[in-house]
Specification:
This protein is α/β, with parallel strands linked by helices. Helices cover about 45% and strands about 10% of the residues.
């Protein structure tokens, strides 16, 4: 339904942005909805998401399927941050970095907004993991 009703308009907007030499970044936080259709219509330079798309059963499959056509952003669940401890967050960051690091094209982030009522401790942990564990070396 998205492709039929919103798709043509979003495609025109994305084409307009690209024609002006700018990049398109989109966010899809739905579970099981129109991920592939958004990419096919808008050809975004990056896509942020909370859930794996319906045609992928693992982070590795997501990287194989979409990692060569767009930069993957996300997808640490903001709800997880409300109950996580620092060690669990570091482990999740490393899991995502390991899954998406090959050939670049990954930005470590939450899959939706960072929880407004949460202090910045976990945001700092994520940045630290990206700067240390996630640092690309010559062998990656």
């Amino acid at each position: 339904m998205w492709d039929e009703f919103e798709g043509p308009s979003m495609q025109r907007i994305a084409e307009h942005v690209h024609e002006r030499g700018c990049m398109v970044m989109i966010h899809n936080c739905g579970d099981g909805i129109y991920f592939k259709e958004q990419i096919d219509r808008m050809h975004p330079e990056a896509i942020s998401m909370l859930y794996l798309p319906p045609d992928c059963t693992s982070m590795q499959e997501l990287k194989e399927t979409y990692g060569s056509v767009t930069t993957i952003i996300g997808h640490i669940d903001p709800g997880f941050l409300m109950v996580a401890d620092e060690d669990r967050l570091r482990a999740l960051c490393r899991e995502q970095i390991d899954a998406y690091k090959k050939d670049g094209g990954f930005i470590l982030a939450t899959g939706c907004e960072y929880p407004a009522l949460l202090d910045d401790t976990f945001a700092r942990v994520m940045v630290e993991e990206a700067q240390t564990y996630g640092k690309y070396g010559a062998d990656q």
